[in-house]
Amino acid sequence: MTFNTPKQIEIDMKKFVILFIILIPIMLSAQRNSASIKIGHFNPSATDGGFILGYEGGRFVDKNLRVGWSIDWFNKNYVDKTLVEEFDSYFGPAGQLNQLRAETNLHSVPLMFTMSGLFPMSPRVSAYVTGGVGAEMLLIFYNNFENPTTDEFQAAFDFSWRAGMGILYELGYRSDIFGEIVYHASEPSWTYEVNDDNLRRRGTFERVFDMSGVMARVGVRFYW
Fold first, then answer.
1. Which residues pair with 122 in a beta bridge?
2. Torsion angle defined by CA atoms of residues 96, 97, 102 and 107, in that order, rounded to the nearest 10 degrees
3. What's the CA gap between 132 and 70, in Å, rounded?
4. Residue 49 to residue 52: CA distance in whole angstroms
């Protein structure tokens, strides 16, 4: 498993800050505002797919170029099979106990700066390409190794990016509906230390949550 060091995370966050500074003048000079609500399905590598909810705010630089920001929320309760295998390998098989120890409740919250280019196809229909860069925060609730009925909490962060395409239909001058397919990439990580008092062994595990995957969403956008 790969692991992002604190130095690597610091470099990624510096890139994020630099991008923010670059985008501020563009966003301030834009004219027309927009707000979008998105719902759909996200299938990251770390776990099974599930429901994702998002919001995106934006401003038009010109008729066909929009810049803005977005925030999403994805939640999944699952058993980390990779962690189960590592527990079995290091401490020995323990039946269902290691699966209980590896139960994880994951909340993913990526915050990104976005940019979209529109390509009109008819008076009411446009195709578009979209992309974004930013930072992703994972809120992780997991079971204590020695006492699996006790919850523990950890936060993990990583630089993230996404790219995709979609199509929209204008309902009117101030609203449209759209559908899009987007690839999202990030790998938040942290170290995980456990003790086995019976074996008198202590293990440090590198946990990487590969949140890279495809999301398919539909939404509605309003303009003012």
1. none
2. 80
3. 9
4. 9
DSSP line for 190-221: EEEEEEETTTTEEEEEEEE----EEEEEEEEE
Question: In the beta sheet, which residues pair with residue 78?
Answer: 104
The CATH topology of domain 6-190+205-223 is Porin (2.40.160)
Phi and psi at residue 45, to the nearest 5°: -70, -30
Q: Round to whole Å and give the CA distance between 98 and 196.
A: 12
Residue (of 74, 72, 73, 71) closest to 48 by Cα position:
74
Q: What tokens appear for 191 in the block?
A: 């170290």
Tokens 């930013």 belong to 134
Answering whether pTM is above 0.85, one says no
Q: Give Cα separations from 49 to 37, 77, 95, 162, 192 (angstroms).
A: 20, 11, 26, 17, 24
Q: Which two tokens stand for residue 104?
A: 């994880």
Per-residue pLDDT reduced to its tens digit, 166-210: 999 999 989 999 999 999 999 998 887 777 666 566 777 778 899
For residue 136, give every residue at least 6 positions away whose Cβ sits within 8 Å of its Cβ, in sequence order, or none: 108, 109, 110, 111, 157, 158, 159, 160, 186, 188, 211
Using CA atoms, how far residue 30 sits from 7, 23, 62, 63, in Å, is 35, 11, 7, 10
